[in-house]
Amino acid sequence: STSGRFGETGKASNSDSGVSWNASANYKLPGGIIPYVTVAEQTVVIAGQGADISFDQVDTKTFLTATELREVGVKGDFLDGRLYAAVSYYEQERTDRNVQSTTVNQDIKTEGLEAEVRWSVTDKFLVTAAYTNTKVVNETFLEAGTAFSFFGIEDMVNVTDPSLHLGGQPIGLVIISDEDDAKRAGIPENIYSLTGTYEFDNGLSFSGSLVNVEEVYSGQSQVVELPGYTLVDLSASYALDDWLFRVTVKNATDEEYFRANFTELFGSTIVL
User: pTM (2 decimals)?
Assistant: First the structure.
């Protein structure tokens, strides 16, 4: 039940059901190459910010939606199992827009490419490499043509003295005219990673990883661009009988980097 304007109340009762499913097929070709395809659909309950289902959703029976996934790729083992490689392309989208809003339950379309290589150079030396290309478009923003946002200094292009609005919180609508404007901020389009591990016969092993992340906008208005960065992590471990000792150094090069936070609303005012 819910209370309406002018003291009116309403009640609604309804039920619905959905099916989640997935199907995948692959074929092993000569030489260890395996192409595959996967199709899936996941039923999702549409809820508000407080995990609530609104009266209108119950009354109109629009509290269920679905997410569709389509993926094609190829993978394989080579060099007597010492080398594994895979590459895939996928698309994922929330399909029902009946009760979407620009702040919750957004209709999101994601497409991307993922590639991975794992190579056991020797019995002691393992190398892995990966690449991801991700593009996320907020279809709700694109359909609405605008996106509500809190504005930061860079948004106020005609305000020469920022102290005129610092301490306050200007709000407004960001114009969304095409897919490029509707890209979800804070998600780097390209990420590269490389890891290596070497193990000695005496139980001592060393490993290191490198992750390169490209520049990305922090908010939907695309006025603050966070610089790209490279992170290096190092670790050493020693195994002795039933004991394992490990030391890990995160961000070994002391790289200063920034990540977006709550991009839809506060991307122009706060980052991590």
Answer: 0.82
Burial code of 168-201, b = ≥16 C-beta within 10 A, e = fewer? Answer: eebeeebebeeeebbbbbbbbeebebebbbebee
Contacts by 116-121, CB closer than 8 A, 24 or more apart: 116/84, 116/85, 116/86, 116/87, 117/83, 117/84, 117/85, 118/83, 118/84, 118/85, 119/82, 119/83, 119/84, 120/82, 120/83, 121/82
**pLDDT per residue rounded down to tens, the chain (272 residues):** 444 455 556 788 888 888 899 999 999 998 889 999 999 998 877 776 677 777 777 777 777 777 889 999 999 999 988 999 999 999 998 765 555 555 566 778 899 999 999 999 999 999 999 999 999 998 888 888 988 899 988 888 888 888 887 878 889 999 999 999 999 999 999 999 999 999 998 889 999 999 999 999 999 999 999 999 999 999 999 998 899 999 999 999 999 999 998 888 888 888 99
Taking the C-alpha atoms of residue 243 and residue 81, their distance in angstroms, rounded to an integer, is 30
Who's near 221: CB < 8 A, 6+ residues apart? 149, 151, 154, 155, 174, 267, 268
